[in-house]
Write a structure and sequence with these properties.
Number of helices of chain A: 5
Radius of gyration of chain A: 16 Å
Strand order of the largest sheet of chain A: 2-1-5-3-4
Helix content of chain A: 25-40%
Distance between the termini of chain A: 51 Å
Structural class of chain A: alpha+beta
Number of helices of chain B: 10
Number of strands of chain B: 12
CATH superfamily of the largest domain in chain A: Beta-grasp domain
CATH topology of one domain in chain B: Enolase-like, domain 1
Distance between the termini of chain B: 45 Å
Order of helices and strands of chain B: EHEHEEEHHHHHEEHEEEEEHH
CATH class of one domain in chain B: Alpha Beta
CATH superfamily of one domain in chain B: CO dehydrogenase flavoprotein, C-terminal domain
Order of helices and strands of chain A: EEHEEEHHHH
Oligomer: heterodimer
Strand content of chain A: 15-25%
Shape of chain A: elongated
Structural class of chain B: alpha+beta
CATH topology of the largest domain in chain A: Ubiquitin-like (UB roll)
CATH class of the largest domain in chain A: Alpha Beta
Largest sheet of chain B: 5 strands, antiparallel
Strand content of chain B: 15-25%
CATH architecture of one domain in chain B: 2-Layer Sandwich
Chain lengths: 161, 262
């Protein structure tokens, strides 16, 4: 076992892990932050998407020890300081960007990574950016609409309500 | 997956030393190796992560005009760097998905030499030089078949030197579930010489399509390859595409590469 220390959602945390402990296992099992989901565990579905040093990664395809000393953000750290939903989360709610909700934490983390580098993405850019996040309920339409709305752009061109 | 001892050296020489231990394996961005270890298709007793080695990251222009990319540089960093030429930029920004591109590295992709990976096509097409901790290997000698390279046990790709073509293009027919290339064609035009490298198609991994190169050296236009065909005998046959379909795609993607070269 080795010691690992990182900052998760602004708090310094540490623990003792095996070499093979995945970052998502450390986050869920040791830190009990279960908002980061494990869907496929084969780096395809994106339900475990988080930010490590500001960059979108799949937490099932990185070892906890690789994040030693890193700044990690998970879905639990996304709400505003007063506990209200942030602009992306609110847009997902307003535009019905989820059904069962299992993929939503990963979708929100992916959307937030996109808007940091591209504050006004086109519909195509949003769809391309979300290629690594699979949703089996919505058909993606309202997810794309929510991201477009969160970026402050007009969503009237996307018809379905 | 089976457990292992994790090491994270800060320098190339420490990494080389760490890789000398029995059954040690280098870990790049892990986007292939970690899923492989989960399936127990790989079970190293020591895993040597290369991600903390800063001398293996970054992109710079050399005095001879070529570009050197550190082996530990991620696809995302290649895609957004201003010195990267057109074909290579297109290639890097379309590998996997956004999260994969933030972890996966050029060194990892070349060392693994997946028959459907994108980077081997670029390296072979431009005639890149693979720089390891102990020597320099030309791309023509580096790729030795599916998942096989000239790398010795414990040898690390420190950087890759790319000559810059006057125009280039990468055309990838995506396998939509895996986002690997069902067929990918990288074309580089150096004015007096055109090189065409194909990935995703052959049982032997990445290869150069010499007939197309000869035709394009005569006349650099998509019309010059319209009468060519490529033998499907050694092509990959799987649930996604037959040998014949892959052979057909090689020609289609090559034509598109000529038309889109920039």
């Amino acid at each position: 076992m080795s010691n690992v220390t990182m900052t998760v959602n602004g708090k310094t945390v540490s623990g003792s892990v095996e070499g093979r402990t995945l970052l998502v296992e450390f986050i869920r099992n040791d830190l009990h932050l279960t908002g980061t989901h494990v869907g496929c565990d084969t780096s395809q579905c994106g339900a475990c998407a988080i930010h490590v040093d500001g960059k979108l990664v799949k937490a099932c395809t990185m070892f906890a020890l690789e994040a030693n000393g890193a700044e990690v953000s998970t879905i639990e750290g996304q709400a505003n300081g007063d506990g209200s939903l942030n602009v992306i989360q609110q847009a997902f709610k307003d535009h019905h960007g989820l059904q069962c909700g299992f993929c939503t934490p990963g979708m929100v983390m992916a959307a937030s990574a996109l808007l940091k580098t591209n504050p006004k993405p086109s519909e195509l850019e949003i769809r391309e950016h979300l290629e690594g996040n699979i949703c089996r309920c919505t058909g993606y339409h309202n997810i794309v609409k929510a991201v477009l709305a969160a970026s402050g752009q007009d969503v009237s061109s996307i018809a379905a309500e | 997956m089976y457990n292992f001892e994790f090491k994270q050296p800060k320098t190339i020489s420490d990494a080389v030393n760490a890789l000398e231990s029995d059954d040690a394996q280098a870990l790049g961005g892990g986007q292939t190796l970690i899923p492989t270890m989960k399936q127990r298709l790989a079970s190293p007793s020591t895993l040597v992560s290369l991600t903390a080695i800063s001398e293996m990251k970054g992109i710079c222009k050399n005095d001879d005009g070529s570009i050197s990319i550190g082996g530990g540089t991620t696809h995302a960093d290649v895609a957004c760097h201003s010195d990267i030429f057109f074909g290579l930029k297109t290639l890097a920004e379309n590998i996997g998905d956004a999260a994969v591109r933030n972890r996966g590295t050029i060194g990892g992709s070349l060392a693994n030499n997946d028959p459907a990976a994108c980077y081997p096509a670029a390296a072979l097409s431009v005639g890149a030089t693979i720089v390891t901790n102990s020597r320099e290997i030309s791309a023509d000698d580096f790729f030795q078949g599916m998942f096989d390279t000239a790398l010795e046990e414990g040898e690390i790709i420190v950087s890759v030197k790319f000559p810059v073509p006057s125009s280039s293009s990468y055309q990838k027919f995506v396998q939509p579930a895996s986002r690997f290339a069902m067929v990918g064609v990288f074309l580089s035009n150096f004015g007096n010489e055109t090189r065409v490298a194909v990935t995703g198609a052959s049982e032997g991994g990445v290869f150069r399509w010499c007939e197309a190169e000869a035709a394009l050296n005569e006349d650099f236009s998509d019309g010059s390859i319209k009468d060519l065909s490529i033998d499907h005998k050694d092509m990959i046959n799987d649930i996604h595409a037959s040998k014949e379909y892959r052979a057909h795609l090689v020609k289609v993607m090559t034509k598109r590469a000529v038309a889109n070269a920039s």
